[in-house]
Amino acid sequence: MLNIKVVTWSLGVFTAVSYLVCLLYGLVTPESIHMEKFLEIVLPAFTWLTWWGILLGLVESFLYGVYAGLVFVPTYNFFYKRWVRK
């Protein structure tokens, strides 16, 4: 059984850190291979290299991870109870 609080926070922090790594990657690589277009597509209202865009992208990335945890953990626990713990 998975703990929803632990998994949700872990995924939220993981996606926020991954977002920051994408930003750093975009700053050190040539424009043709960084993640600017991808981030603008995936994160609503994200604008590349503006303070508002960076903060909004960080919050949205965290919330994507939280959403994944809130959906995954109950699903996993449901199937765990049904098929493993008999």
Structural description of this entry:
The protein is mainly alpha-helical. The protein contains three helices and no strands. The protein is elongated, with a radius of gyration of 16 Å. The mean pLDDT is 94.
Keywords:
86 residues, mainly alpha, 0% strand
Q: What is the helix fraction of residues, given as a range?
A: over 70%
- Span from first to last CA? 13 Å
If helices are DSSP runs of H or I spanning 4 or more residues, what is the number of helices? 3
SSE order, one letter for each helix or strand: HHH
Structural class designation: mainly alpha
User: What sort of overall outline do the alpha carbons produce when their principal axes are compared?
Assistant: elongated
